[in-house]
Design goal:
By secondary structure, the protein is mainly alpha-helical. The chain has 16 helices and 7 strands.
Length: 414
């Protein structure tokens, strides 16, 4: 990859996006920001299998549910997605289940959970994606009875965005920044949720753009960039291990969906008619039976920094997720519940693994596997891990803007 593979970014808009990304004013109860679950100190993630969104306190592995009188009702059902290289031009689908995609179905240019209510003018799929955590009850919006944002979402998703926008544009610092950075904004009253989404996307796209790994240098012609072990792993990745069947192309993802029967736990991304916690993956969006339990192929640059792995963070190590890819059913036999990093919450722990008691559901998941088992010796698996570690950028830990010390709302910055 080169910088030409990415959408252009206006630095002034990215600066606004940086402030918004860490400003809790975007959340219903003003108590959580995008950066809470996608923090700089944690390579744009939270280090948890399933995080605690709205209602929690603390960061990363130290994040906990609040006191019993104000306790969260469920964990976030899926692992916090990596932010690396989401500003690439060729990205056409986002979220683990692909519920946001580029499409001419609606005037906005995207097929999304907001359907025809997603506004026009969002300049990238990343800008569209940035708007949805704001309206998600357990991520940033809160319960409907708690605040006007979540109450509005309970009526219709787009009713919340003007409320959030007014919070932002009426702060003098934000108003002035938007007027200075956006050509079409002449006064703070002109700011819309589209501008907020575009600013957030500018920040994410520029902040987590990274393609200066040893592997990238190797592709550019520096044959000494990879040591012998990593080169051997690369040969396996693109050869006998068949990893590149899905992790293909410059993005190291086919942007498609595959079933791997990862260990099941957590509340699941349930639909209204799901009787028990479960996650049917892509089928939850498409309603096609053939999509059951399939999830989007993640991109792999800086993957060594973004543990735990899988759509639900089932594996804490690269070796674990590699072994699962090679032989899912065999890996399931040795997986332990303590491999999932779930912040303590006694009232949730009673149901964290209840889905595994549903024998029919477990059988369905085990039948829906899209990979052919491959047996590799331990030394080959170690070589694959070495190759994945070579995808870490030399400058990955040095981001251009970083975390702001303060934000215009004056709310605390995580």
């Amino acid at each position: 990859m080169t910088d030409a593979d990415f959408l252009p970014v206006d630095p002034a808009k990215a600066k606004i996006g940086q402030l918004l990304f860490y400003d809790k004013i975007l959340s219903g109860n003003r108590n959580i920001s995008c950066g809470t679950c996608h923090h700089h100190d944690l390579a744009g993630g939270d280090g948890l299998s399933l995080g605690i969104g709205e209602g929690g306190t603390g960061l990363g592995k130290n994040r906990i549910a609040q006191s019993d009188h104000d306790r969260i009702r469920k964990r976030i059902p899926r692992n916090a997605s990596s932010l690396w290289n989401l500003g690439a031009r060729d990205i056409s689908v986002l979220f683990h289940d692909g519920r946001l995609s580029a499409s001419n179905l609606y005037d906005s240019g995207f097929n999304s959970p907001a359907e025809e209510w997603l506004p026009k003018g969002l300049n990238s799929i990343l800008a569209a994606q940035a708007l949805f955590p704001l309206t998600a009850r357990f991520e940033m919006a809160g319960d409907p009875e708690e605040n006007e944002v979540s109450g509005a979402v309970n009526d219709r998703i787009d009713n919340a965005w003007p409320i959030i926008t007014k919070r932002v544009r009426t702060l003098p610092e934000y108003g002035a920044l938007f007027v200075a950075a956006f050509e079409g904004i002449k006064r703070p009253e002109d700011v819309t949720i589209v501008d907020i989404g575009n600013a957030l996307a500018a920040f994410i796209a520029s902040e987590w753009r990274n393609h200066d790994s040893p592997f990238d240098r190797y592709l550019a012609g520096d044959r000494s960039a990879l040591d012998a072990k990593a080169r051997r792993g690369m040969g396996l990745f693109y050869g006998a291990a068949n990893c590149a069947a899905c992790h293909s192309g410059p993005l190291m993802s086919d942007q498609s969906f595959h079933a791997l029967a990862l260990p099941a736990f957590g509340p699941g991304k349930t639909r209204r008619f799901d009787p028990h916690p479960r996650d049917v993956g892509r089928m939850g969006k498409s309603d096609l039976l053939e999509d059951a339990y399939r999830f989007r192929t993640p991109m792999l640059r800086n993957v060594a920094l973004t543990a735990p792995y899988g759509h639900n963070g089932a594996y804490p190590t690269l070796e674990g997720i590699v072994r699962h890819h090679l032989n899912p059913l065999k890996a399931l036999e040795t997986w332990r519940t303590d491999m999932a990093h779930l912040p303590k919450a006694a009232w949730l722990e009673q149901v964290d693994f209840i889905v595994q008691q549903d024998t029919r559901e477990m059988a369905r998941q085990r039948r829906a596997i899209d990979v052919t088992p491959i047996e590799l010796p331990d030394e080959d698996i170690a070589a694959l891990v070495a190759f994945l570690e070579s995808l870490t950028g030399d400058s990955a830990q040095r981001r251009p803007l970083g975390r702001p010390r303060t934000v215009p709302s004056g709310l605390p910055v995580d």
